[in-house]
Amino acid sequence: MSRFGLLGLTIAVAASAATTQSSSVTFNKDVLPILQKNCQDCHRPGEAGPMSFLDYSSTRPWAKAIKSAVATKKMPPWFADPHFGKFENVRALTQDQINTLVAWADSGAAEGNAKDKPAPVTFVDGWSIGMPEQVLKMPQAFPIPASGTLEYQYVVLPTGFTEDKWIERAEVRPGNRALVHHVIAFIRPPGSHWMEDAKPGVPFVPSRDRPRRRSENREDGGMSGIELLVGYAPGLQPQALKPGQGMLVKAGSDIVLQLHYTANGKPGEDESKVGLVFAKETPKQRIFTANATQARFKIAAGDANSEVKSSVTFLEPVELVWMMPHMHLRGKDFLYRATYPTGETETLLNVPNYSFSWQLSYTEADKKILPKGTRLDCTAHFDNSANNPANPDATKDVMWGDQSWEEMMIGWFGVAIDPKADPSELFRAKKAKADD
């Protein structure tokens, strides 16, 4: 046989093997385990995913869409540059998993033998953290009109804690996902003046014209000592700490909900809530959330690569636990870099293609100690040009603001510290100028 004939036979055999392998891929045996591990947290009734992937009948109509989403790596959403950092919550599928899902769709999306199905994953109805030990809920539903712009609403929920509590897991559950853009649950310690004009349980919009009190720092708006407990937004996971870790909610604290509603053409109402699971003993590490923020910037109209920076310096050693960049619709990329006391630098996280549609956090896979004197720098770029399809208006300068058509630059992060340490003494923020 000629070498050309041998080559043709080899190709034919390979093609036949591929066809046989593709046709043998079934939902029950091959696809369902992948969906259980990577997709069902969001793609089930009552969760963020718009369709359910719990069983064959609900998944089969989406076979081609699943193929397209995984082949282009749009799903699961994950934006960290693999060249920097190592993260334990990576959502990216392996190439073998992608090949399996593509082969299943291409071969007719067969169901397969029911005996091959793995046992269903058990979810607590309405909660991803398991059954909460305490639920703090808005006491009355908030009405949302069919149209118009709503200012951020704040609702103070007193905890009623008579002793300090350590939180092991926490989750925000929006009452109306179609109208809730995001919810952030903040811990307001006793004695704080932040939102002090708000009445417990009553939706409140802070007045921008109210004169600042002496107790309110002009840079942080009076939020000194305020800590992010947990949030809800597409892609954001509940707070689930490791054994021996906890978040502190002091006796007499309040949980303050920041609620962002977006009208969609139909009136509705929302009654969001927060679920808490307590640690059984005092943890060895306190998880404290903070941020490197720059609120003083102006992104010029048409600028396709406007740079904004923020920075904090740690006055004591800390263990970096997670990072979460936040921008709005003009957000382009975001980078976290550490400059150590030795002068050495390390890129901790690079998000080269930021997406406002998915608010993701990135959890360190290994212990990452930042020594005393380490400076954490955040660098963000914004695309305010007409080439940005998400840009609301490329003809206008953009500055800091709550609404999605305005912008933010926040480098959220969580650190592990000694439970007895005072977080206010851990770091200082660099008061960077917009053109730094």
Question: How big a fraction of the residues is strand?
Answer: 25-35%
User: What's the shape?
Assistant: globular
Rg computed from alpha carbons, rounded to a whole number of angstroms = 24 Å
- Helical stretch tally: 5
Distance between the termini: 71 Å
Question: What do these coordinates show?
Answer:
- This protein has 436 residues and is α+β, with helices and mostly antiparallel strands.
- 13% of the residues lie in helices and 30% in strands.
- It contains 5 helices and 20 strands.
- A hairpin with a 5-residue loop joins strand 15 and strand 16.
- The radius of gyration is 24 Å and the shape is globular.
- It starts with a helix and ends in a 7-residue tail after the last strand.
How is the topology of this model organized?
Blueprint: H1 3-23, H2 27-38, H3 56-59, H4 63-71, H5 95-106, E1 134-137, E2 142-144, E3 153-158, E4 165-173, E5 180-188, E6 227-232, E7 239-240, E8 245-249, E9 254-261, E10 268-270, E11 273-278, E12 285-293, E13 306-314, E14 318-326, E15 331-339, E16 345-351, E17 362-370, E18 375-382, E19 410-417, E20 427-429
Parallel strand pairs: 8-12
Antiparallel strand pairs: 1-11, 2-10, 3-9, 4-7, 4-8, 4-11, 5-6, 5-9, 12-19, 13-18, 13-20, 14-17, 14-19, 15-16, 15-18
Helix pairs in contact: 2-5, 4-5
